Amino acid sequence: MSEIPIAKRTETRKLLSAVGLPAPLIPKGGKAFFFRTLPLVACCLFLGLSMGIFLAHPQEQGERIALVIGNGNYEGMGKLANPVNDAEDMGETLSSLGFDVEVVINAGLERMEEAVLRFRDKLAASPGSVGVFFYAGHGVQSGGENYLLPVDARTNSESLLRTRAVPLQFVLDSLKEARNKVNIVILDACRDNPFSWARSSSRGLAVVGQQPPGSIVVYSTSAGRVAQDGRGRNSVFTEELIQHLRTPGIDISEVLRRTGEAVQSKTRGEQIPAVYSQFFGFLTLAEEGLNEEEYIDSVISNYLPPLFDEAPRDVQFTIAWAEERAQSDQRLDGWNALVEADPSHTDPYLVAAKIRFLLAYGEAQENHLKFTFYNTGDKDYDTALQAGTLERKSTEFDLYAVTQRFKGKPEHLPSVLALELGKYFYRVFSHYPQGWPLRKEEVLDQALSWLRIAETKGVLTQTDEIVSYSDLLAAKGKLDEAISFLRKKMEGLPRDSDDWERLWEALVDTYARGGKPIEAFKEIDTRIRSTPADAKDTLFKLYLKGMGISVESKRKEDFERYAKYFEVQYPNTWYAGIFRHRFLLETGDTKGAQKLAERLYQQFPVESILKDNILEPLLENYLRNPYTSLEAIPFLDSLIHTNQGAPNRLFELYMYRAAYRAQISRNTTDPNKIKQIARESLADLDRAETLYKGFPSQEEEILSILKEVRQHFQKAVHTGKLPD
C-alpha cells in the first residue's frame, strides 16, 4: 500500500532555518533544492477514495461513533499547546455532524487503552456504523512501528515504547475486530520526537502497517515528516480539517483534498498531509438540502476569514464564497467574484479581501503588481497542467493607486484594510523589485504606517504579523522600539507556547541583525541556564540558535562553546558539522572547509537523492556567498575522484554536480556560457544514468527526474537560457 499525497506534491525541505541553519533555496513555485528546483512536473495522485462501490449518504448510514483524544500536558517532555484545543473543537464538530463522541483529554496509558477498547465495542454493536478515531499529541516511530504517547510516557529507552505507549497497530487491530462498515483514523501526531535518544531516529510517523478493510488513515503530514503544532488555538491541520468537515454535500475524499491543499499552502509546502485508504466508496458527513439563507449562513460560517465580521452580510458572503472557491482550487473564480462585486475597488472590505486573496492565492510576478490565478476544473493542478485544461489569467491590480483613495482618513477605515495593506507593502519591501513605482524606503514607510494603524486598532495579533512589524521597525533603524514591541507582545503569553517561542526567536534575531550579537547571546544563555537538563529538545534548539548567530557574527569563541556542547550531547547528528563548515567559509578558510566537508560526507553517507542528506546543506553553505559558490565544484570533483569504484556514490555525486552547475549558472546571462554549462551537466547526467541503469533495481521517481532534467538541459543547450 503506497502513501497518497492529499495535495500537489511540491516537496520542500526545511533544514531548521528557524535556528539559523542554511535556508533551502525555494524558487517561485515552492519546489525544494537542487533536483526539485529544476522545473520538474510532479506526477501527482488524487485520493483514490471514490470507486463507486456503494453510496453512503447520511440518511442511509448506521450510527456515527467517534473517539477523540488530545494529549498536551506531558510529564518530563515537551508540552504541546494545541492538542487539547484540537480535541475539544474536533469533538464539537463531530457532535454537530451526528456523532456519538467521547473526548479524552491528557490521558495516561491505561485511560487511552480503555478508551480504545470502549470505542471498539461500540462500533462492534453497530455493524453499519461509521467510526472516527482522532488523536492529537506526540507520536513517534520506532523500528517501523508507530506509537501514540500518553502523557505519562516516561521512557529513557526506545525499547520501552512497546510497554509505555499505545501502538497505532493496536488501534487499527481494534477497528478490524469491530467489523463495522467504515472507519476513519486521523492522526495529528507527527510532531517532532520528544525523546533525546531519538535525535538520530526517523522523524514523524512511519508508513501505516496492517490496515483494516473499509478504513482511511490520515496523517497530518507525510510519513517521516514533522507537523506544526500551530500558533493559534488549533494546529494548522486540525483547523483546516474542522472547517472542511462542516462543508455540506461533499465526499470525504474532497474534504481531505481541500484540507491537504490548504495545509500545504499555509505552511508553504513544509507540511503535506497524507492518506492511506482501504475504502472505495462515497461518504458524505455534512448533509445537503439547506435553503438559501441557511446556505449563505453556512458559507459565511465556514469560510469567512477573520476580521470581516463587521462587513455587510452580502459582502461577507462574497468574501466567504471566494475563499471557498480558492480552497477548491478554483482561484480564478474566487478572484473574479471579488472583482465583479466591486469593480471600481472602492468598498474597503472588498479591497481588503482582494489584497488578502492576492497574497494568499495569487502567483505574484516579480514586480508584485501583477498576479496570476488559475482554475483546475475537476482535476488537480498538475493533471490539469499536463492535460492543457488549466485555466489561467493574469490581473493588474494597481494597489498603490487604490491606496490613495483611502489615504485621507486612514483612522476611519476598517481595521482589516489597514492590516492587509501593511502586509502587502511588507511583502513588496521584503522582495523589493527594481523599477517599482515607489522607492524601497517609501515602501518601508507605507508598510510601517499601515501596520501601525492596525496595531492601534488592536488587530496586529498574529505572530507572523507581529514579527513583520518588528522587522520593519528594525529596518527603519528603530531597533530599540522593535525590541520593546516584541517584549510587550510576549507579555502574558505562556513561555511554553509556540507564539512565545516564535516571538523570542524574533527578539534574538533582531538583536543579531541589529549588530548586537552579545545581547542575542545573553538571551540564549539566560534560557539555557533556566532550562532543566532533561529538557533535551529545548536545549537542542537553543544551542543550534547560538551556533547560527555566532556564525553570522563571526564570533569564534562563542561559536566554539555552543558547538562543543552540541557535539558532545548529539554526536550522531551533522548539525554542528554543517555550522563549522559554514563558519570556515564565512571566515575565508575555503581549504579547511573542503577538508571538513569531505570528512562529513564520509561520516554521513547519502542514502538517496530523494531524502535529506549531508550534501544538500553543504552545497547550500557554498551558495550562500557568491565568493564561495565556485568552491563547491572542486569539492565535488574531489569526491568523484576518491569514490571511483563505488557506483552508488558516483551516481549521486554526478547528479549533484549537474544540478549544482545549474544553480551557479543563474548568476550569468551569457547564453554561450549557459550552453557550455548545460553541456557539462548533460555529460554528468549521462554518467549518472549509465550507472543507475546498472543497479539491481530502479525507482520510477529517479528515472522521471533523470528524464525531465535532461529535457531542460537539452533545451538550455539550444536556447542559451535556463528555465525559471
What topology does this entry show?
Elements: E1 4-5, E2 55-56, E3 64-70, H1 83-96, E4 100-105, H2 109-124, E5 130-136, E6 139-142, E7 145-148, H3 161-164, E8 166-167, H4 168-178, E9 182-188, E10 215-219, H5 236-245, H6 252-266, E11 274-277, E12 282-283, H7 292-303, H8 313-327, H9 331-341, H10 348-361, E13 363-364, E14 370-375, H11 381-387, E15 391-396, H12 399-405, H13 415-430, H14 440-456, H15 463-475, H16 479-490, H17 498-513, H18 517-530, H19 536-552, H20 556-569, H21 575-586, H22 590-603, H23 615-623, H24 632-642, H25 647-664, H26 671-692, H27 700-719
Parallel strand pairs: 2-12, 3-4, 3-5, 5-9, 9-10
Antiparallel strand pairs: 1-11, 6-7, 7-8, 10-11, 13-14, 14-15
Helix pairs in contact: 1-5, 2-4, 5-6, 7-8, 8-9, 8-10, 9-10, 10-13, 13-14, 14-15, 15-16, 15-17, 16-17, 17-18, 18-19, 19-20, 19-21, 20-21, 21-22, 21-23, 24-25, 25-26, 26-27
The total strand number stands at 15
Helix content range of the residues, please? 40-55%
Helices and strands: which structural class?
alpha/beta
Q: Judging from the principal axes of the Cα atoms, what is the shape?
A: globular
Largest sheet: 7 strands, mixed
Q: First CA to last CA: what distance?
A: 35 Å
